[in-house]
Amino acid sequence: MTSAAPIVSPPSVAVASLRDAASHNSLREAIPTFTLTHFLAAVGRSLLAGLPAQVWIEATVVAVKASAHGHQLELVESDGTGGAPTAQLRVFLANEVRRGIVQASGAAFDPALLVGLTTCLRVEPTFSPRWHLQARVLGLSAATHQSIERLRVDQLRQTLQREALFDRQRSLATPPDLTRLCVIHPTGAAGYADVAAELDRWQSAGLLILRHYQAPFEGERAAAGLIAALMMAADTVEGGRPDLIMIVRGGGASAGLQSLNNESLVRAVCRCPVPIVSGVGHAIDRTLLDEVAWRACDT
């Protein structure tokens, strides 16, 4: 029995195969090779090189997830048809940035209030091979601050109404006489000088006993300072409990009124057994403190 003859490629086929192999090797050498990590890192560098160091992003926040170091916000943009989002991005709000926002605004800031809001965030674009394109939040626009504050105040107002605290001050009886008066005011407020001058004349004439309590109206410590002053004012004046407490700021920038929407302060005003008159801003500068006080006056 004879063995089969080996199959031999025609010379032209063998030459073509060698040529293809050489071409493939040459192509492999001409095109750089990356690991996946190095490839994505290179993509990130190229991407970030084409972007400013900081940008403002307008988008809707659809989810907020808290972590030990901050909050992750899920941003989306849609075309308005109700379909799938046309763009999505995750951004990170670090705890230290949130504390800076609170310190700068003088008002509490719960990132969960951002859910459902169309916001404008100042961010620093970032990229990592694992998480791809993301961004770090550096700040909020003034309009976003205002939206958050309106939402927070609305929620607090509804809570106070459910707890039957919202109208408690207004249910207090009108003082039959005004002989003991306490006034809470900021240090060196120019607008308060006119009020003080008139009240001092009444006291000099023996018409009333007047006590002044100074407290900060702006900044992180404003609410705590105002509550402490309110507790002292509501305690005792010569002859017994005061007939009336006035909280007077005497005008100023509207941005400085945010502390007067503080929940702890507003609750303290609601529970105070002494009628409180607020005079903390102009007619357009309505605060929650004005809403719950026994009476509110424009400055």
TrEMBL record:
Domain of life: Bacteria
Example GO BP: DNA catabolic process
One Pfam family named in its UniProt record: Exonuc_VII_L
Limits of the Exonuclease VII large subunit C-terminal domain: 165-299
InterPro entries: Exonuc_VII_L, Exonuc_VII_lsu_C
GO MF: exodeoxyribonuclease VII activity
One GO CC annotation: exodeoxyribonuclease VII complex
Family annotation (PANTHER family): EXODEOXYRIBONUCLEASE 7 LARGE SUBUNIT
Name of the protein: Exonuclease VII large subunit C-terminal domain-containing protein
Lineage of origin: Bacteria, Pseudomonadati, Pseudomonadota, Alphaproteobacteria, Hyphomicrobiales
